[in-house]
Amino acid sequence: MSRIRILAIVLMLSLVGNAFAIGLGLTLSSRTPAVIRLIEPVPAELAERVAAMLPAPAADELRARLTAMEGVIADHRARYRQVLVDVALVLGTETVDVDALTETITAARKERAAIGDQLTQAFAQTAATLPLETRRRLVERFLAQQ
Question: Rounded to an integer, what is the distance from CA 124 to the centroid of its chain?
Answer without folding.
Answer: 23
